[in-house]
What we know:
Layout: H1 2-25, H2 28-32, H3 36-44, H4 46-54, H5 60-88
Helix pairs in contact: 1-5, 3-4
Amino acid sequence: MKYRIAAWAFVGLAIAGCWALYASANAPATMMSREPVLTLIEFTCPVVLVGFYFHFGVSFYLTLVANAVTYALLGLIVETLRRRLRHAQ
Length: 89
């Protein structure tokens, strides 16, 4: 189970890294508009959502770490539920 949770954390880290590369490739003006891409970013990187609504800047490294931790906690919940449902059958 440890490896699965670590995989979830790595996926969160990779998602945040890919969005950071996307943001650096595009102009900042396009990232501030309300586009479907920004909604997808807010859905996959919750720390960005918090930064937008509480009006504080989030650094690149903080985004990577926070997203990895968020996905690790989500993975812990999912894997625990999956394990319990498997044993209940």
